[in-house]
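Figure S4 source data
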Amino acid sequence: MTALDAAATRSMPYHLIDEAGRVRRPLLIIGRKSRSILCSDQDWNATDETLYQLSLPGMSESVDMEMTSDLSECAKNLDWQSEKFAMHGRLKWMRKSLP
């Protein structure tokens, strides 16, 4: 991760915002009393979604289990209209609509 001194970033805030979105890597900004991370909204949304998914009971165990499964055991075609996938969409919508 690229680290920058806060004083040096004062003259180029728009450049840093563009750079964070372009390179898709967070920038560490170091101040006298604290440190902050600047990342693109796409990266933040991806991180937020990952944290949410991992907060669901049993989700990380399920992912770990599926990562070790043999590909020949996996479904070739998915029914995206099934209740399992439809529920995920409703949960995601409900989560984003909450204050």
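Figure S5 source data
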Amino acid sequence: MERWQITQEKVQSVIRKIVEVSQPTSIILFGSYVRGQTGLRED
């Protein structure tokens, strides 16, 4: 596994940190990973 590869665990970790620090009312995620369409040519 590549060091910079986005994983579900990394996404969840970032979400937890955002919520802990800023306590937002909502978080909007976008991009191919969130849609479940990851690939070499995706964002």
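The chain has a mean pLDDT of 81. The CA atoms of residues 23 and 40 lie 33 Å apart.
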